[in-house]
Amino acid sequence: MKKLATLLPLAALLLGPVPAISHAETSTVKHPAWTRSANIYQVNVRQFSKEGTLNAVTAQLPRLKAMGVEAVWLMPIHPLGEKNRKGSLGSHYAVRDYLSVNPDYGTLDDLRKLVKQAHALGMRVMLDWVGNHTSWDNKWASEHPEWFKKNDKGEIYSVTFKNEAGEMEEWTDVIGLDFTNKALWKAMTDAMAYWVRAADIDGYRCDAAGLVPTPFWNQLRTELNKIKPVFLLAEWDQPELHEHAFDASYDWPLSNMMIKIGKGEANAADLRNFLAKPPKTYGRDAYRLEFTANHDVNSWQGTDKELYGPAYGAMAVLSYTLPGIPMIYNGQESRLEKRLEFFEKDPIEWKTYELEGFYTGLNQLKKANPALWNGAAGGPLQMLDVGNEQLFAFKREQGKNSVRVIVNLTGSPQKYKLAGDEGPAQLKPWRWRILVSE
């Protein structure tokens, strides 16, 4: 923590708050209390250990707890399709049976033990749910072909859609579900409710959530909350998803901005402009998932070293201190420097946990300061003028708690003057200063 936070009297020149206006202001989602100061840790079960099992994850929960992790997100734990499989093991997101545990990972009892241990440590567990599509050999395809999308010839076909960038994508190993059939709604809702009841999980990360009708998610939230308060994370970024269904959504735009900064294609001014005029606006209580890596980024875009180089630490600090719920991808605490294979066994090289202390400090900083909490529980973003436009500086306040952050987004030393300092100070390349006051 000594490298992260310094206690100083509060004083700063404000340029004014970033707007926080959205049609999602009327959100009816009631966030579980534990989420207000929470962070998320994503586990790629296949690659998390040489064993690639749920029990191997359970064994690491005390270490994750000591690091300050509060919620563990398990990538899909279900049996995977064999027909049209990609690679030798297949995609995690080509689910063959929604109601079973992949035998490569373990058993239902193993999952129950994992959740029970996490709860005993004060942690929560989320499952990854693939609601838009199944594998070709999912039993629903033979038992209920009417639940699947069909082409003009009446044939089930591989998932094809236009992504958010306007490009056409085809996923040849999976087939799309047809949510115009309300019988599918009940079957899918029952399947998701099953794991809450059977294993006492605490919520879901919902894959490709925007490709599933929002009304389905709205009714799902109501049904799951009848069992227990759940946390739902959408892999999408439409503000309407926050109105009745989802606690959190992916902040892909900020992720892309941080990657551009890391590659020297954007600077502090670009980040300020982006935050002042975001591509979409959200209600103050909508959580946005902030990350420097996840399974898609790591496998398909690049490692932290490739994407950010020496800027990596600065980007991680921003992901924890800007408004949003922060996430760590497994292995980042050991400076993961390889792209994990997506369709093959490729265990993380854990080495020396070089950055474990760094992430422990960030988790402690987040937890200890209400100004950095999630949604309306935290403070809004207010830009600071430190006399140097090459630096990105801001403040967040909640009650008497205030956190000021100054980050050098360049590869050279930069001077700045912060109110309360005796004179100009200097930040080394890609370094930061965090000041907390009560």
TrEMBL record:
Keyword terms: Signal
Protein name, per record: Alpha-amylase
Signal peptide: 1-24
InterPro entries, sorted: GH (IPR017853), GH13_cat_dom (IPR006047)
SMART domains: Aamy
Coiled coil: none
Domain of life: Bacteria
Pfam families: Alpha-amylase
Domain called Glycosyl hydrolase family 13 catalytic: residue spans: 42-366
